Amino acid sequence: MVSQIDMPISVGAVFEPPDRVRPVWFMWQGRRYVVTKVTYTWGRREGACRVQDFSVIAGANLYQISFYRDAMAWRLMAVDDEG
Amino acid sequence: MERDRIILHIDMDAFFASVEQRCRPYLMDKPVAVIGSGARTVVTTASYQARKYGVKTGMTAYEARKMCPMIHLVTVDNRKYTDTSCRIVKIFQMFTPLVEVFSIDEAFLDITGSISLFGSPESIAGRIKACINKDLGLTCSVGIGPNKLLAKLASGAKKPDGLFRIRPCDVQGLMDGLSVEELCGIGTRLAISLEHLGIKTCGQLGRMPLCILTRRFGVIGERLKAMAQGKDYSPVIPIGEEPEAKSVGHSMTLDRDIMDKSDILCYLLHLSQMVGRRARAYRVAGRTVTLTVRYADFHTFTIQKTVSRAINGSQDIWNIAADILSDISLMQPVRLLGVSLSNLFPLRARQLSLFESSRRQEEVCAVMDKINDRYGEGAIIWGMLLPYCLHGSRIISPSWRPKGIRKVNVK
Ligand SMILES: [Mg+2]
After folding, report:
1. Domain ranges of chain B
2. Does the domain made of B15-79 have the CATH classification 3.30.1640.10?
């Protein structure tokens, strides 16, 4: 089941040249989740703001997290516990 | 004579479903159907595992479940697919600048000039398949042919993950027994008309005297005969060189059938806003507004109205659409509505309206556009739309293109 969350989160990420971002871990509800795999990533725009979405596996679940490039902010969008 | 060209047609395999399977590894090798987000939505793509059970594009979620009870239904997410499509097009452009985007998951590539750089057509096709697989984890089917028609036919020959070449020497033998419906551009209706002339195969169509075909089908008679012979002279039209748009339009299937004209007016305002916004973004204005209405039984009709001044304001478009609606006495509840603007003119300099009221309207439109550009579509909407939980149809039509103004309407 997919639960929509849409909350700001702290993320540890690696920036790779030329312009790649790869989330490595994130904090949510006081717990640290280590990303074991980025299954897919895609770019989109929210108005003028560029957003990079990531579908990631951490623990037993699949998460969708979004990087707002211009604001340099991350959000947890959804959790999918079907995986 | 047709000069020797080498054309690739590349078709992503079960595109939306495959992207969702990459995103969610637990869906890998499972029957998956991607469905629209509206209440009355249909399957847009089914994974190959779901197709085995007979699940097809266009089925309702209910029908899909009936055919395959364990199917996973996933809601369509256009932004994933459009971004993926753009990345795939960039891979194509590494091999040739002549890339024509045919739909969100199909493209034609003219690689005639690339052979000397990259090797045989098969090896170029193989490299493209490998790149797409490495970067995105997706598979595609590639057809190689001397023209677009045959390349498209070839890509359909071995699916999924196929690679098939039709050489000029194979054409006659291949076309002879081929059903006319297999050709891109010949739909069910045309196939039925051809059957009335006793034509079922391309061989029969190719041998039919031209005068009979032109008498029945007019100017396209000649093209039909050529197609049946495997001839197609149409060029690959690269991105950015497509013909100018002739119309800007949107349509939507309503969540439920409606009869009440004030409800219909609200949908028309929403559609007019979408159309106006696109026309303003492309800097065009039009003199003709077309209203499309589809009844519950799928009977569909369109009514046009042409005005003296070219318009692109959402409210102006809406006023004309509403005008058309007021002259219609509805025979049945309405299932689908469409609004389009045609008879387009490019806007070079902004003309100032003579009247204070229309000047104010233009200013409101411009400010609304700015807000929606900056904060995202729907950040500001017309107040009368608020009570309606409206969302534009999120299903991408096959006419989707990466950017720029388009000839074909978006659903
Ligand atoms: Mg396809």
Report:
1. 15-79, 171-228, 247-406
2. no
Cα B344 versus chain centre, distance? 21
Contact A57 B25 (CB under 8 A): yes
Query: Is-cis flag, bond preceding B31, omega within 30?
Result: no
Q: Against a cut of 0.80, is the pTM above it?
A: yes
pLDDT in tens, B44-87: 999 999 999 999 999 999 999 999 999 999 999 989 999 999 99
Pairing of strands B99-103, B106-110: antiparallel
Does B22 contact A39 at a Cβ distance shorter than 8 Å? yes
Angle between helices B220-228 and B210-217 (to 10 degrees): 130
**B179 DSSP assignment:** B
Distance, CA of B75 to chain centre: 19
What is the distance in A from the centroid of ligand 1 to the CA of B110? Answer: 19
Q: At residue B131, what are phi and psi to the nearest 5 degrees? A: -60, -45
- The domain total for chain A is 1
Prior bond of A23 cis (ω within 30°): no
Q: How far is B119 from chain A, CA to nearest CA, in Å?
A: 30
User: Contacts of residue A44 in chain B, CB cutoff 8 Å?
Assistant: 79, 83
The answer to whether residue B212 neighbours chain A at the CB level (below 8 Å) is no
Task: Give strand pairing partners of A14.
Answer: A22
Q: Is the dihedral of CA B191, B196, B199, B201 positive or negative?
A: positive
Q: What residue in A sits closest to B79 (Cα-Cα)?
A: A44
Substitution target from B70, B75, B80, B374 for chain A, most A beta carbons within 10 A: B80
**Tens digits of pLDDT across chain B (411 residues):** 446 899 999 999 999 999 999 999 999 999 999 998 777 788 999 999 999 999 999 999 999 999 999 999 999 998 999 999 999 999 999 999 999 999 999 999 999 999 999 999 999 999 999 999 999 999 999 999 999 999 999 999 999 999 999 999 999 999 999 999 998 888 888 999 999 999 999 999 999 999 999 999 988 899 999 999 999 999 999 988 887 778 999 998 888 899 999 889 999 999 999 999 999 988 899 999 999 999 988 888 999 999 998 999 999 999 999 999 999 999 889 999 999 999 998 887 555 566 677 788 888 888 998 998 888 877 888 887 776 654 443 333 334 444 433 333 333
- The Cα–Cα gap between A72 and A15 comes to 12
User: What's the ipTM?
Assistant: 0.94
Which residues are within 8 A (CB) of A25 and not within 5 positions of it... i.e. 6 or more apart? A11, A12, A32, A33, A34, A35, A58
Domain B171-228 matching CATH 1.10.150.20: the answer reads yes
CATH code, residues B247-406: 3.30.1490.100
What's the domain range around A32?
2-80
Answer whether B181's CB lies under 8 Å from B188's CB: yes
